[in-house]
């Protein structure tokens, strides 16, 4: 009878690939790997790119493929040139590389390299920088009082990715720095310098220079007269730059690619008002807090696509904090959180208590309520508790790991998916995660505790 039953079983590897793809949705990478180990045919079928691609970070895949490991043991391809097996598919290999990276995180394996100041007259180990930030996953910006250095941290000591940017003599510690879209902005009061970066040619050149409250960019050198009372707000979204003089209600909007001023946008409120804060998201939108009169704080939204204010408007009788992700804004007022879709003006969550400012995991708001980590999905409007409880502080480190404090002791947890699976891991930090800057690929971070260092996980 047993033999008859076994004869009736249709081998899964001979099913049409469309059916196998449907079945594979319910399989974990561990399940897929086990299927690949059964036979040559199963290896070919369950090693297909279409089955592995959904388990990979597509931006990370190409980066890990071309970036050498600094950390031992390095990733080694399982393929042998003498093997008679079919080659490992692109996306299965990509998953193996990613898993190697995440295993280094899980096991707390890393390599620390100090950021050496090779231009210091005192000592290469004397850090007189104002800050270090990532420009790309492998290049950091070192911001000094007289220059900006672009350093390639794939090497040690880090090498110059381009020649340094020499800062104007009037630039000082009050100068701010923004980076993105192959551009570096230095900002002091209303004077903006835009440098264009070409890392393949190792070139960094001044592209535009302008006073954002003027109508045109500078063609010739114009003397800068610092005014210590003239504080400004700045925002950068793709090729858009937005500047506001504090105490005023006008946004000055520029195209950084062309150096053209696009618009001077007056606040639409009738009453006397001033823009207090501007926040950006991955969309080409801004969310703005405006103080109107002596008490009211009004939250508005603005589209950089149409260069117009949106219809969204919420008024509060006291100062509020607000947090923006995609087309959603969370407004934190007196210990309660309201979440809106500022494009449609829909109220998605009202008067949710919380004891920490919200952070974001993908599109979701994550916060602590009653010592429990909770998650709100604004797309489905579902609020749920995660398995992480008894905590009084947290910091999302990346899409896979979170640092929490339980009884004031640090713990690192791995979060699978959107908290579908959680697991405390062995990794331990000798500093709070809020003291570091992580790159986009989660392969390195900069620590600003003591002398600056780069921690490598790849």
Q: What does this 3D model show about the protein?
A:
- With 458 residues, the protein is mainly β.
- It has a domain at 2-106: Monooxygenase, CATH 1.20.1280.
- Helix content is 13%, strand content 41%.
- The chain contains seven helices and 33 strands.
- It has helices at 2-8, 17-24, 29-36, 40-46, 49-52, 58-66, 90-106; strands at residues 111-114, 131-134, 139-143, 147-152, 159-160, 165-166, 176-180, 183-188, 191-198, 203-211, 232-237, 240-245, 250-255, 260-266, 273-280, 285-292, 296-303, 308-316, 321-325, 328-333, 336-341, 346-353, 359-361, 364-369, 372-377, 382-389, 393-396, 401-406, 409-416, 421-424, 436-438, 444-447, 453-456.
- Strands 2, 3, 4, 5 and 6 form a five-stranded antiparallel β-sheet that branches. Strands 1-33-32-31 form a four-stranded antiparallel β-sheet, with no helix packed on it.
- Strand 15 and strand 16 (285-292) form a beta hairpin.
- Helix 3 (29-36) packs antiparallel against helix 4 (40-46) and helix 6 packs across helix 7 (90-106).
- The radius of gyration is 26 Å and the shape is globular.
- The model is unreliable at 1-6 (pLDDT under 50).
Oligomeric state of shown chains:
single chain
β-strand amount: 35-45%
Mean pLDDT: 87
* Count of extended strands: 33
Sum up the overall morphology in one term.
globular
Question: Structural class, judged by helices and strands?
Answer: mainly beta
CATH topology annotation of the domain at 2-106:
Monooxygenase
